[in-house]
Sequence to fold (137 residues):
Amino acid sequence: MARRLDEMYEIYITKEVLLSAVDFAYQFYPREFFANLGGKVKKGKLIINQLYFEPFRSDPGRVEVKTPYFSHTTNFVGTIHSYISEIAQASEQDRKVFGLHLINFIMAVSPSKMKDLVAYDQEGNKVEFKIITHRRS
Fold:
């Protein structure tokens, strides 16, 4: 996708997408979880309302995507993955691939709850977002 995040005004992620991602992160614990995010840019807003799974390998402290099946679809806008830590701090490897996506979410999880959720732009800067109820595309 050629657009840059700084062209947009607001970022929204649906509660359903976020809850699904958190649920899968709990299921994968203590391994990391990874998924792609789908959505649309409309009227100065990025609305994330889909979660896509690709084959990936996960170990404690590492996730590796094998084949980018969905990265060429028109509604692919970013990624979400979990860390097994107290904070959702982007790693050096994360920052190397941020430029490929409009938005990148990292969540820190423990066996019982999500402790932190942070969104980053293509350059690794933290960005604000809002959680909304389901919005049809």
Q: What stands out?
A: DSSP finds two helices and ten strands in the chain. The beta strands are 10-14, 34-42, 45-52, 56-59, 62-65, 76-83, 103-109, 114-120, 126-127, 130-132. The first strand starts at residue 10 and ends at 14. Residues 15-28 form the longest helix (14 residues).
